[in-house]
Amino acid sequence: MRIDIVTLFPEMFAGFLEGSLLGTARRAGLVEVHLANIRDHAIGAHRQVDDRPFGGGPGMLLMPGPVVSCVEAVRAEAGEPGRTFLLSPGGRRLDQPLVEELAATSRLVLVCGRYEGFDARIKTTLDAEELSIGDYVLSGGEVAAMTVVEAVTRLVPGVLGHEESAGLDSFSGAERLVEGPQYTRPREFRGLAVPDVLLSGDHARIAAWRRAQSIEVTAGRSRPASAHIPNPFRRTVS
Ligand code: 4FL
Questions:
Q1: Side-chain half-sphere of 223: how many Cα atoms within 13 Å?
Q2: At which of 153, 185, 217 does a domain end?
C-alpha cells in the first residue's frame, strides 16, 4: 500500500514514520509513505499558500492553486490514483469499518489543512472526500493524518505480525463492541483484586463475563455530535 501525505509541515512526520510498527513495516516494503510539501507548489516571491476568506471572517484558508498542484504532482508519481481525503472536522468520521475499507485500498492521498480550512474548490477540483478523526478542532490536519496512517497500516497483512489479534480488537467483531477491562499480574494491586472469574480456568464463563463487560462498556460510551441534532433534521451519514 502507498500513502501520500500532502502537508505544509512534513517535518512533523519524521519521528512518527520511524516508529516501531510503522518503521518496521516500511523497511519491510509493506507500506510506502511519501511526504509532499504544499509550499513547493506555491508561486511568487512570497510563496503564498493561504489567504483571507471572501465575505470576511476570521483566519486564513488554504488557496486552491498550491494544494491542487501538489496533489496532482503526487498522483502522477504512481499508477493508481486511489482515494484522496482532505482531513477536516466536517468530514466523514473515521471509525473501524472505514479503517478496514481504507486498509483494502492500494493508494491513499491524505491532505492536511492548516489555518481555518480549505477553499471549497479544492475538494471539487480533486474529487476528494473529507475525513474527520473526531468532533474537535486541531491546529491542522497533520495529527489527524497520522491517526489515519496508524489505524490503517496496522491492518495491512504482515504489519502486525500476529494477524489474529486484530480480529479481537475493540470495534472489530460484527457487533463492533469495545473491549472491557483486562488484567495482568499482580493478582492484587493496592487492594484491588483481579476478578475471580478470570482465574477460574473456566473458558466459557470467562468468555461470557468478557462479553457482558464489553456490552456494558459499549452501551455507556458517549454519542457523536450528530446525535444532538433534533430528529426531524438528522440524516444518516456513511
Ligand atoms: C481534522 C479535526 C480531522 C478533526 C483543524 C484542522 C481536524 C482539523 N479531524 N482541525 N483539521
A1: 5
A2: 153
